């Protein structure tokens, strides 16, 4: 038994799938699965049972994870006694987020930061919602969080990206202009697959404005979304800056605008150097992305 195996087991319990746990820990999923199986063989017990597309702890698995958390917390407390060197060795960065935004971290931001700061150990703390996320930040279980804004005023806020939602439709779609959000009620839409992080964010927005569109196509294959619109399956509700080739289609804004602002938040306390470095890195990354978006708009 080793600490790596214990970390993998705890991460799998927290994320519900080995794939998500591996992404949060920046390891290959087969390596994580192999380590968990090795621990099960060593202990002679089954820690996880299959449940739908994920896994759940067995009764003995719950006991193992309970003791593993205690052991890992003790190790982290010991590691925290070490003085962080100027080059960042020994530092740890814990970033909280929700399932809807986890891909933002694991897909681009954290891998790039990890390449720039290879000595820093990065951990993702996944939260069930914004209320849980703000609690994690307030109590110090994560130094910083990526979330939708606004958040309660007792947290420090660093906006990163303002995203406008637009409607992409075939030329023949007849709708009133200017386009009101209420027009989405009953409209046929090409939507992300149910259960995925992209769909959760859109469903929350649609519920907030009180509309119920008709799912025409439901898929996470983003490369096919615009083609589905071209074929007349339905319209697409998506972020303006994330659309590639809309030639031959009609892109409409909403009045009032439908938008989403994403940012980093943290408690009002003195930040460790690694957190300040991450904030600066994230802001620079956001500026680069805005620049890339402006270039695409002029092509």
UniProtKB/TrEMBL annotation:
Gene Ontology MF term list: DNA binding; DNA-binding transcription factor activity
The keyword Transcription belongs to this UniProt entry's keyword annotation: yes
GO CC terms in record: protein-DNA complex
Keyword Transcription: yes
Boundaries of every HTH lysR-type domain copy: 1-58
Keyword annotations of the record: DNA-binding, Transcription, Transcription regulation
Stored Pfam families: HTH_1 (PF00126), LysR_substrate (PF03466)
Entries under Gene3D superfamilies matching the protein: 3.40.190.290, Winged helix-like DNA-binding domain superfamily/Winged helix DNA-binding domain
Family affiliation: Belongs to the LysR transcriptional regulatory family.
Protein name: Transcriptional regulator, LysR family
Organism whose genome encodes this protein: Thermomonospora curvata (strain ATCC 19995 / DSM 43183 / JCM 3096 / KCTC 9072 / NBRC 15933 / NCIMB 10081 / Henssen B9)
């Amino acid at each position: 038994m080793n600490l790596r195996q214990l970390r993998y087991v705890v991460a799998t319990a927290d994320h519900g799938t080995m794939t998500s746990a591996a992404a949060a820990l920046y390891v290959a999923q087969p390596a994580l699965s192999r380590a968990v199986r090795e621990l099960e063989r060593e202990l002679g017990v089954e820690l996880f049972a299959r449940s739908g597309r994920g896994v759940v702890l067995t009764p003995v698995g719950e006991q193992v994870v309970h003791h593993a958390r205690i052991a890992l917390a003790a190790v982290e407390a010991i590691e925290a006694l070490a003085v962080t060197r100027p080059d960042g060795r020994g530092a740890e960065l814990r970033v909280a987020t929700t399932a809807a935004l986890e891909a933002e971290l694991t897909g681009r931001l954290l891998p790039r930061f990890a390449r720039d700061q290879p000595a820093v150990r990065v951990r993702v703390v996944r939260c069930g919602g914004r209320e849980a996320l703000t609690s994690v930040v307030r109590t110090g279980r994560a130094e910083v969080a990526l979330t939708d804004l606004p958040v309660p005023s007792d947290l420090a806020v660093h906006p990163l990206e303002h995203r406008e939602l637009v409607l992409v439709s075939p030329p023949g779609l007849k709708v009133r202009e200017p386009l009101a959000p209420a027009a989405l009620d009953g409209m046929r839409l090409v939507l992300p697959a149910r259960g995925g992080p992209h769909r959760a964010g859109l469903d929350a927005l649609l519920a907030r404005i009180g509309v119920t569109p008709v799912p025409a196509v439901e898929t996470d294959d983003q490369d096919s979304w615009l083609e589905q619109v071209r074929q007349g399956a339905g319209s697409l509700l998506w972020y303006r800056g994330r659309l590639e080739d809309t030639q031959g289609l009609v892109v409409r804004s909403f009045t009032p605008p439908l938008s989403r602002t994403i940012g980093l938040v943290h408690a009002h306390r003195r930040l460790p150097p690694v957190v300040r470095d991450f904030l600066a890195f994230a802001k620079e990354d956001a500026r680069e992305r805005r620049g890339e978006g402006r270039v695409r708009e002029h092509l």
